[in-house]
Design a protein that fits this description.
There is one protein chain. α2 crosses α4, α3 packs antiparallel against α4 and α4 runs antiparallel to α5. The protein is globular, with a radius of gyration of 13 Å. About 65% of the residues lie in helices and about 0% in strands. With about 100 residues, it is an all-alpha fold. It has one domain. The mean pLDDT is about 85.
Length: about 100
Amino acid sequence: MTADWLSDLDPAPTKELASAMRNALGGATENQTANDLLEAAERLLDKVLRTDCESRASALDLLTVDALMTHALLLSNKDSKRSESFAEEAMHRVATVWQ
């Protein structure tokens, strides 16, 4: 990923979503791997599930989890050897975040 990969996305995320994604990544957006994005999504999903995730206030967090997962899968797709196994691993990890 480039230094400003969020700005390079097409379509670009809203300012609020881009900011939430940066926050979930701890502010670091340079040299992020698919696994880094997946781990950020897992952490945020765990946080959401530990709170009242049915409230409107958690909507941005849930959208952020979705965006991080989407971009993790897209990034992993660039590595054809890892793409399928990463997708399976990602779905398993997210499905078992809070059991």
